[in-house]
């Protein structure tokens, strides 16, 4: 089923992915111009307009955060779009060139999208140098889960900048695997500056840089920790200081502090939205007595409801709720780091997947955070012990084409179907709500939407648990682990004694054969 060499096949997939994105890019220009079919529907994301306005403000020397108050990102994103708008403004080009300047940012995001695939392939080859995974299978993993993934292929074309951050995250992981600690630190500082969430990788990076040759001192910082930490601080503080010098406190407030105080009252995939919605609504009413028309919970005593809806009580409960919803992410990030640090790409993926799943806000954009790490993570479970190598039917055909085992194809299809089904359930109810169903169905539709969010969370937990279960426990340290001086626990004295005994027996057999050769000669 393979056509040509693996290298030719990889080039074919990459070229096809580029053509796909160029086709979507041309379609986005046409759709934005025609607004087919109702004259209102756009293909480009509204976030891209935010980036564009910030870049235009940067060209004129204005404060990008005051020119576009909804711009809540690092100035680096606007800086990437700045050259196109600078050329267009300076030389007073005609309308087609203005359109090209407007779309130049999408070309940058698309390019970063393709470079992500190249880094994913390099990471898989580095981590699995000692494993039996073919380059043909690697090409299928990157192609199926990134290059031709409908989510990833569309997001960059719509003008979302997540591919830029994804490229930085992959570059940081690749640098660690290549033992380029200072470069990894600089890239990690860049990642945290662009967006705060990559700080979740700090625990697993610390464990990756540890030297476990001395079990007693294995968790103490080493020279490599200092090199990485200083490089991270240099990049993070340098970029942050430069942005602060240019835009002052407004930059810190919009790019960082806003995300700590942000309250998303509208529905999203996270089930936290409904309790937050109720808390904010009850506090906004500022009622001092229980109103049964608003909260008709007749099966509770009135005195209990009055105490519960007292503003001071609500504020304390709301503050406690905000703390409690952060605990699952914190515990999972720490636990997953300690469990999977010896398989870095899977650890980074699992940490990101858990963080997005249990975050208080979860939108489709956040899926890109873990999708960019999915192909390298799946490379660790491309074969499973006890799987049949041959199988009939569709799964067997796909397995022969991709080089995967039929069991992996079957289980991957099941998990993908489960994930899309959970998402489709939520989107269906959300669509009914958006179309005015909330006014007709009332509280029942809100509860159904919250139930769909809870169901989607459960689906994600099941998927992560299955992937963790299917990760082979017998993975030996990869070549990248050896470069990072990683190893498993030191062998026990009994193991060393057995190895010495085996060596002696082998030496005796070799000497006996040599003597027999001499006698026969």
UniProtKB/TrEMBL annotation:
Give a GO cellular-component term. glycosylphosphatidylinositol-mannosyltransferase I complex
Q: Where are the transmembrane segments?
A: 12-30, 160-177, 183-207, 228-247, 317-338, 408-432, 444-464
Alphabetized InterPro entries for the sequence: PIG-M
Provide the topology term for how it sits in the membrane. Multi-pass membrane protein
Which terms in the Gene Ontology molecular function aspect does this entry carry? alpha-1,4-mannosyltransferase activity; GPI mannosyltransferase activity
Q: What does the UniProt function comment say about this protein?
A: Catalytic subunit of the glycosylphosphatidylinositol-mannosyltransferase I complex which catalyzes the transfer of the first mannose, via an alpha-1,4 bond from a dolichol-phosphate-mannose (Dol-P-Man) to the glucosaminyl acyl phosphatidylinositol (GlcN-(acyl)PI) intermediate to generate alpha-D-Man-(1->4)-alpha-D-GlcN-(1->6)-(1-radyl,2-acyl-sn-glycero-3-phospho)-2-acyl-inositol and participates in the sixth step of the glycosylphosphatidylinositol-anchor biosynthesis.
Provide this UniProt record's keywords sorted from A to Z: Endoplasmic reticulum, Glycosyltransferase, GPI-anchor biosynthesis, Membrane, Transferase, Transmembrane, Transmembrane helix
- Gene Ontology terms: biological process: GPI anchor biosynthetic process
Q: Provide the family line.
A: Belongs to the PIGM family.
What is its pathway? Glycolipid biosynthesis; glycosylphosphatidylinositol-anchor biosynthesis
- Coarse class of the protein's main subcellular location: endoplasmic reticulum
Q: What top-level branch of life does the organism fall under?
A: Eukaryota
Q: Which cellular compartments is it found in?
A: Endoplasmic reticulum membrane
Q: What is its EC number?
A: 2.4.1.-
Native species: Taenia asiatica
Q: Name one Pfam family in it.
A: Mannosyl_trans
Q: What is the protein's name according to its record?
A: GPI alpha-1,4-mannosyltransferase I, catalytic subunit
